[in-house]
Amino acid sequence: MSKPKVATTSLAGCFGCHMSLLDIDERILELVELIDFDKSPIDDIKTFSNRCAVGLVEGGCCNEENVHVLQEFRKHCDVLISFGDCATMGGIPAMRNNIPLTECFDEAYRSGLTVYNPDNIVPNDPELPLLLDKVYPAHEVVKMDYFLPGCPPSADTLWAVLTALLTNQPVELPYELLKYD
Amino acid sequence: MAEKLTITIDGVEVQAQPGQTILDAADGAGIYIPRLCAHPDLKPIGSCRVCTVIVDGRPQAACVKPVADGMTIENNTPELLEHRRNLIDMMFVEGNHFCMFCEKSGNCELQALAYRFGISAPQYPFQFPAKDVDASHPDVMLDHNRCIMCARCVRASQELDGKNVFQSIGRGFERKIGVNGERDLADTDMDVKDRAADICPVGCIIKKRVGFEIPVGERKYDHKPIGSEIEEGEYV
Fold first, then answer.
1. N or C: chain B end with fewer CB closer than 10 Å?
2. Domains identified in chain B, total number
3. Which helix (H) or strand (E) segment is A70 a member of?
């Protein structure tokens, strides 16, 4: 029997949750015994090549590309996991949610203290994904099956959940592994 | 010598004093009833409803309901757990609770209750309301993003500090904590040594220059759930 496939992605996140996944240290050798990575920044595979058992989603949705990727994940993965505070609650990117979008653009591209932009242009190439009105946690865009809060969730938390899922055990986190910071 | 009363909480007989609230009687017996707005040094107001129990078939706030002989009380039931989880969930989505950079994280009672109830993500849609931060005072900061309207600060200022720094203003979703000053907290007689400065269950009222003093791993709720001290009988 071939090994189950795991896909991962970082949407509106900082890659900190992926770093935490790498923090499982030498247990990553056990992990690759259990699984193969499919689409993921870890192996740099850009598109889904197989149906995946588990999709790990870091970050919420701040632009239309995030929404597209998240919908692709839902389509190709049996179980989708929100991992990290950005995916579960919006996180740091969601701090812009009660600031009007034009003010965000002005601060970033026009009036910010360190901005040099003599033409006063806000980047508008059609290749660039459009920003959403707000940053949405992943489960407000597609159905998510599990939630792992934490900024980032600790390597032990990720390890406990991944090994439970991949060995058909119930996912139950001990008190000390459920943290929001 | 006052007579003793007997009440039953989840099938366990508990001795209580006349005039005690259900919450106090349960605490004395080592039974934890979750609560947020209640504080041992303040008069209870029954505002957050997290301590709701079923008394002889009817829901009551344990922090304000006095005991009566023969009361039968349900506390730790799946229905009440769900009710309490829903309340905590709503408090999370109705504010802007960014635990990852909040000084109160690890010592926050709202967060600790969510941990105790095993909430991994709120189920309600996030509101992301626009709220103010009042950093005018030299020693104390007021961050309305994190306020859960428990009114502990209002009561502490009046009952313990003999002042009247805080007041709740507005109605419904617009309700907020206001300050009794010309404009901001700096215009009041608030002092960093006031009880009101350290009675906030969340990170709304924060003392300046002491943030993140306690390292991760040594904070109040890092290893043991909120309520453990009551269940272990260490609570007086």
1. N
2. 2
3. helix A64-76
Contact B100 A95 (CB under 8 A): no
Considering the entire predicted model, what is its pTM? 0.95
| Average pLDDT rounded to a whole number, residues A76-98 | 96
Does some domain include residue B236? no
Q: What topology is assigned to A5-96+132-177 in CATH?
A: Rossmann fold (3.40.50)
Of B116, B121, B223, the CB nearest to A149: B121
- Residue of B93, B128, B223, B231 to mutate, interface with A, max A Cβ within 10 Å: B128
Q: Do the Cβ atoms of B67 and B22 come closer than 8 Å?
A: yes
**Contacts of residue B95 in chain A, CB cutoff 8 Å?**
none
In sequence order, which residues have a C-beta less than 8 Å from that of residue B58 and are 6 or more positions away?
A: none
Chain B residue with the nearest C-alpha to that of A146: B120
Q: Is the peptide bond before A126 cis (omega within 30 degrees of 0)?
A: no
Distance CA B10, CA B7 (A): 10
The mean of the pLDDT values for chain A is 95
Complex ipTM? 0.92
Cβ of A140 and B125 within 8 Å?
A: yes
C-alpha to C-alpha distance for B6 and B20, rounded to whole angstroms: 12
Tell me the C-alpha distance between B89 and B105, whole Å.
17
